[in-house]
Amino acid sequence: MERTQSESRHTGRSITTPLLHALFFLSGAAALVYQVTWARSLSLVFGGTHLAVATVLAVFMGGLALGSALLGRRADRTARPLRLYGMLELGIGVCGLGFMLFIDHATALYAPLARTAGGHPALLTALRVALAAVAMIVPTTLMGGTLPVLSRLVAVGDDERRGRVALLYAVNTLGAVAGVLLSGFVLLRQFGVDATMAVAVGLNVLAGAAALAMGRAERAAGSVVEPPEAAGTRPAAAASWTVRFVLGGIAVGGFCALGYEVLWTRTMTMVVGTSTYSFAIMLAAFLSGIALGSILCGAWLARRRSRDDDHGPVMAFALVEIALGAAALATTVLMSRLPEHALRLQGVFGGDGPTPGARNAATAIVAVAVMLVPAVLSGAAFPLAAAVVAAGRRRVGRAVGDVATFNTAGAILGAAAAGFVLVQAYGVERSLLLLIALQVGAGVVIAARAAGRGAAAAAAVASLVLLVALGAGGARNLLWNPRYFAIFVNNQRDLFESRERIERGFEIVDVVYYHEGVNETISVIRPLGGDQAFIVNGRSEATTVRADMQCQYALGHVPMLLHPAPARVFVLGSGSGMTLGATTLHPEARSITLAEIERDVLPATRTFAEWNHRALDNPKVRIVHDDGRNFLAVTDERFDVITADPIHPWSGGASYLYTDEYFRLAASRLAPGGVIAQWLPLYELTPQDVGTVVRTFARNFEHVLVWMTWWDAELIGSNQPFAIDPEALAKRASASAVAADLSAVNMAGATGLLDYCLTGTRGALAFADAVDGRVNTDDNLRLEFSAPHSIGRSELMAANMAALIGYRETPPELAAAGAGGRPEAARLADRAHVLALGGALPGPEFASLTRALAERHPDYAPGVYLRREEAAQRAAQPRPLASERFFITSGGRQRLFQPTAVAMRPSERWSVVAVVDPDTREMLAEAYLPGAPGDLDLAEQACASEFMAALRASWIASFGATVVPQDAERALALARNSLGATAAAWDRRLPPTVR
């Protein structure tokens, strides 16, 4: 036995080289590349619902846990651990190739089985688990064994080697950081999914081959390395109990760590966005912290000497768990005002501007500020637990394997619990507090255990009482104000520029609905007398603004009217429900299927009942809670109309609803003569990106029409010619309910509807050629990686419109129907539209164009819409109503202080009367006035008069009619207080439903 130990030590010293660490770095990079690409690939098979995604993650991590448990024991029995490690890496590479072959046939296998399951959640989950296991369980089991095997190689014997497990863990985690950044920023974007998977296979093969080559020099330390326990030495009972407590603690740590990550990431997406780059940066930040923590812990373990009765690592582990809970609490407090903190950081780094590098740097800073400290402590916990368990069991491979197994099992449960149970029952903030209490409680129990069983029992009872108390409090927040997150809109940040504006926002914005759902944080807000907005993860996705409604109604009415008898309809995504509601108004529709991935969106949809015609209560509507693309892949139904209003393609996962494979799938689900409509945003996409969507769409539909609304385009496609009957179209468009919708957005009648058609198939393809539009596929993911670079670039709306109008034509289908014969009207309206989107509304050229349209083509629908927007914009400009003149002394010099009341109308139904100082541009007070346009004129004058009268009276009372105040700050404070009291009085006059 002496010879075995000696040679084992010699082997560990000779093999522990930078090359070995380099191999394990590559292995970690490959593992994260697999996790990213396999999750993407399987989401296209199983769908993107949270349950489907969580199933894939659980199987992946379950394989890691299984491998740690099984191969950790095998590692202690092998005489040549390096050779075993090499074989594991080669096996992972072979399985990676197998996954690439399997995934090509997975949908064909899954779809008929899913139809057999009949939409039953339990059966579908069982099917997904089975197929995911077939695809991933073997390679992930092999991955799970790599750390225990290498730990067995490097950590046998001397005290200083206990820190080497920590270093291995850190190196592997740093490899994972490299993997997530390389895949997120380089490999997927430049080479596509398949090639990225092939790179991961190559990394495994390289690591495996190199390990086997190094293993030829590995000296077999006897025929079998027997565990010391086999010689009759068993750990003491106290040590055994300590090991159990620490394994339980590391399981709790894994549970909490993944729970924190899920909840923190959910919250951070509200301010950093949901692009693939944001997710990659957030994950990299978390993993970097884990690696740093492991390195620091390894250095501490390497410096200290162990003793038989050493409780140092146990107490250190307990203190780390307690500190981790405290750090998570501090992070939770910090996140209570995350939008404010994030906007300041982004402002410093220019992250709210159009430069992708600055925006990504700002995202990284936000992620580090939120997650680094807890992640560092989480990284220290693993090697500490491994050191305790190895000391208690005297077998390194099994010890590391058991710690990894318990930690990973806890992580699986934590991710599932956070996403499915805690958020639904308690909301994000209370869920975080429950996790914090659990983690601190576990640390206290372990620390108390080191002091004796009685103390441990008392600590466990106290922790349980705290958890029950927190759980009994329900979803009521202790630290966060839900209204704060409900009113935050990432792409309309002015409300969060200062604390005063936030407080004012609480007063003037009504939160109609707020819910922290499984996938998203959803809110519906309505400013005083203003337009209602539907917000998802801090992003406004639908509003009752006329321009927004025009697009939403067009996506419903245009395909329905272009199909002669649309009996069966499929709507992808609910949102505000306006598109769905538009389809319900057509009497030809007998059945309408709505696919909505997030159940908690539907209550928000109901708040738009006034505009969506109570669509969710319509008996023709069937609601399917599923990923829309996955539903189409599984169903064997055929539809006359398919219409989709997905979220922007830069949002993670949404780009799969703009790919060649999706459009091909949709085409296959259209009945003969079927019509499809697809939303195409003209903002935050370059002309090439727009051309990419157009080309990809046109590849799958022989006949294409492009509709142009205010901020958006709508692609209309069919594989049979559009047969437009002018009389039938006019009759159907004039039906009362349909006509009311179309009139509300200036598209009334058949002529008004067709006036918005920009071009047909030939013009669409010519445009795509001119801007070098490429084909977007599930593999190359062009849009997902190019679109985020356009975030915040407001100039792109005008650029896209200008590019598209160059290919205006009258499609043959419209010409045959006698429509589209007004080229001069179209030319004038197109130029005015470009000016408006470029910010030149109102302006002299725009006004000249709208006058010409009014004189020569008064009934041209886009021209009528332009004049309506012009009137609204002019009303929104500040109009002076009243002012007062005072003098104050500032810096030893007199200056004129001329507070002026101005009126602005952000919408037709409400006005803002503000008092401003023209010299400093400071807004001293503001009042909100809802009402009809005629009533608003009188209310504005009355409000302005009251502001000036109150200011004049208080000024004279304080300073007299002729005295010039010497204290400028006192004078301005008096003005603010007086005007503020008047504004508050006007606020109290608001109807309760508006307030």
Molecular structure report:
This protein is α+β, with helices and mostly antiparallel strands and 995 residues long. The protein folds into 5 domains: 1-221, MFS general substrate transporter like domains (Growth Hormone, Chain: A, Up-down Bundle), CATH 1.20.1250; 237-480, Up-down Bundle (Growth Hormone, Chain: A), CATH 1.20.1250; 482-541, Spermidine Synthase, Chain: A, domain 2, CATH 2.30.140; 544-821, Vaccinia Virus protein VP39 (Rossmann fold); 879-988, no CATH class. It contains 34 helices and 18 strands. The strands form 4 sheets. An 8-stranded mixed beta sheet has the order 7-6-5-8-9-11-10-12, with helices on both faces. A 4-stranded antiparallel beta sheet has the order 1-2-3-4. A 4-stranded antiparallel beta sheet has the order 13-16-17-18. A hairpin with a 3-residue loop joins strand 10 and strand 11 (712-718). The radius of gyration is 33 Å and the shape is globular. The relative contact order is 0.07.
Write the layout of secondary structure elements.
Layout: H1 2-15, H2 18-46, H3 50-77, H4 81-117, H5 121-154, H6 162-215, H7 237-272, H8 276-303, H9 312-335, H10 338-349, H11 356-393, H12 396-451, H13 453-472, H14 482-486, H15 499-508, E1 509-516, E2 521-527, E3 533-536, E4 539-543, H16 546-562, E5 568-572, H17 578-584, E6 591-595, H18 601-606, H19 609-612, E7 621-624, H20 628-634, E8 639-644, H21 660-668, E9 670-681, H22 687-698, E10 703-708, E11 712-718, H23 726-733, H24 736-744, H25 749-754, E12 757-759, H26 761-770, H27 782-786, H28 796-805, H29 812-816, H30 823-837, H31 844-856, H32 861-876, E13 879-883, E14 886-890, E15 893-897, E16 900-907, E17 910-917, E18 922-930, H33 933-959, H34 968-988
Parallel strand pairs: 5-6, 5-8, 6-7, 8-9
Antiparallel strand pairs: 1-2, 2-3, 3-4, 9-11, 10-11, 10-12, 13-16, 14-15, 16-17, 17-18
Helix pairs in contact: 2-3, 2-4, 2-5, 2-6, 3-5, 3-12, 4-5, 4-6, 5-6, 5-12, 6-8, 6-11, 7-8, 7-9, 7-10, 7-11, 7-12, 8-11, 9-11, 9-12, 10-11, 11-12, 12-13, 16-17, 16-24, 22-26, 28-30, 30-31, 31-32, 33-34
